[in-house]
Design brief:
five-stranded antiparallel sheet, 3 helices, 5 strands, about 20% helix
């Protein structure tokens, strides 16, 4: 049996144990967007009594990886909409004037929602980052 000192001296040096999904905020990388879309698309697997509930669940989960998007207003029984994605940045850039603060940054990406009311009275909401 190994002692505690033998266990504690083992160190991973190759980095293979680290998950490569650590930088999910990098929306310029298409592979990151593909991974996020697998997660974002999962809200379409459930039905919701109120479509805003699906958006709020998705918003909370994306905020965990630092991705924010604006308000989503559902009008009518079905339709689609697109909302720009922003990354929360607060502070100063190199070219920010002394009396201003950088607050948010557009990513050039958006999240697209498609929604419909089902005959049962529930709503189906699907989303995808593009």
């Amino acid at each position: 049996m190994k002692t505690f000192l033998e266990y504690s001296s083992v160190k991973a040096t190759d980095g293979e144990h680290i998950d490569e999904d650590g930088n999910l905020m990098d929306l310029s990388d298409d592979s990151v967007v593909e991974k996020l879309n697998a997660f974002v698309g999962s809200i379409g697997m459930k039905e919701y009594l109120v479509p805003e509930k699906a958006v709020n669940e998705l918003r909370q989960k994306l905020m965990r990886v630092g991705i924010h998007f604006g308000d989503v207003q559902f009008t009518g029984e079905s339709g689609d909409m697109s909302v720009p994605i922003t990354k929360p940045i607060f502070g100063k850039d190199l070219d920010t004037p002394a009396d201003e603060i950088v607050n948010e940054e557009e990513t050039g990406r958006s999240i697209n929602f498609v929604y419909e009311k089902l005959p049962t009275g529930t709503h189906k909401v699907m989303a995808q980052i593009s």
